[in-house]
Structures are given as C-alpha cells and as structure tokens.
Known about the structure:
By secondary structure, the chain is of the alpha/beta class. The protein contains twelve helices and seven strands. Helix 2 packs across helix 3 (39-54), helix 4 (60-75) runs parallel beside helix 9 (145-158) and helix 8 (127-133) packs parallel to helix 9. It is globular and about 55 Å long.
Amino acid sequence: MDRETELLDKLLASKKYREMCPDTIRRIWAENRGRYKKLKDVDNATREALHGVSGAFLTDAEAAECAWAMHAWATGARTDAQLENILNKHASTRERLPLADMDALYARIFGITGKPDRILDLACGINPIYLGARGLKATGVDISGSAVKLVNSFGSTYGMPVRAVCADLLCPGAVPGERFDAALLFKVLPLLERQRAGAATVVMESVDAASLVVSFPTRTLGGRRVGMAGQYAAWMESHLPRGRQITASFEARNELFYILQRG
Length: 263
C-alpha cells in the first residue's frame, strides 16, 4: 500500500469522520491533491475542510437522543410535542420551529405547488422525519450518515413513507434519477456554489421534479441583516435553471424562498 492510499484510508476509517459520506472525503482529498505537492499538506488541508463540513452534523449523543425521541413518538400518542422534540435535535429543523410555524411554511409552499405525492429533499438533515410524520412520501439525500440512518430508521422501523441516501451533491450520480412532484433545496445552493462555481445550477438542472423549492438565509449566524436577501435574490434571478420560471418568492423568518416551476 502506498503512502497516499494509507493516509486516505485512515481518514475514511477514522472515528471523527466515520459518519461522513465517503465520496465527500475522496472528493476533498482529490481537490487538495491538485493544490499541494506534499502529502502531509494534502492531509492537513483535507482534515481542515472536513472539520468545517462536519461541524453541523449530529453528535453521537444527539443522534442517540433523536432515536429515543423517535421511539417515544412512534410508540406513544404521536403528539406534536413529541414530534417537535425530535426535530429540535438537529440545527436545520430546529431553526424552523415551533412546529406551528413549520406547518404554516409548508402550507404556504404547497398552496402554490399543490400537495406533492413524492418529495425529494436535498441536504435533508432529518427533515424527512417531519415530512413522513405529516403523511408525505419523501426521499432525502445528505452527506451525514447519522442523519441518513435516523431517517431510514424512522421509515423502516416505524413504517413511515420516508427513506434517505448518503451521497455528496458535488459528486456524479448523487441526485436520484426518479421523478418527483417537488424538490426541496433549503439553504444548500450557497454552500455548493462556495465550493465549486456553477455547482448549484448543475444540481438544480439534475432534479426531475415539477417544482423546485429553494431557500437562502437572510441573516448571518449572528443574526445580522447585511443585505443577504437582496444578494441572493439577484443571484437566483440571474441563475435560473433551464426550463424553469419563478412562480413565487417570499420571506419567512430568516429565509428567502423561491418556487421554480417548469414553464
């Protein structure tokens, strides 16, 4: 085994990154291999990038708490309070709580798109759990293995109409080739574009869905408005994927939403 293979295999097997999509690790390694000559520098740069990517992942403790919360919901009265307790375990769903606000957001979206029979949720986190609990059939894609396992457990163990795959949207074949009624791309496009120019458009054009529901943050992590809504609005309107038109746009709390439909 050569030194490069040894270092890469060590990363793939490490406890710190064992829940990350292997394609993500290989992609970031390959990108840094083109930037640095020394393998030590490649390894250090890759670890630094992976640390940034995995920062929003569920910890082992949070994943365990989420699993127990799912069990309590599924074997109990299945109350909204129990569902909210599940969704509170992950940052991406927690920021859209309380549950009444989340329900209102989706009611507004589906009032425009129509209630979808099949939903694709890209960079899903544990959001398909919410969708399944509300009786919607959903397929999620995420680079977090822990989130994917929780979604799949919710589907297989408790009979919910949801499933998820662990895949990297910056790698070929990550977007499922099936047809969906609606696809959710919540706050993911800026992350893709930051890593690779043009990637956001490629992903949008790879999705086979009647409606794309795209969102962007309107505040910094510190809660400041620094013109983000205007910047993302200008970006979205100048990067419409082929065959799509803007049907609606609106702000809800700290997000700017666009609904893009075929037309």
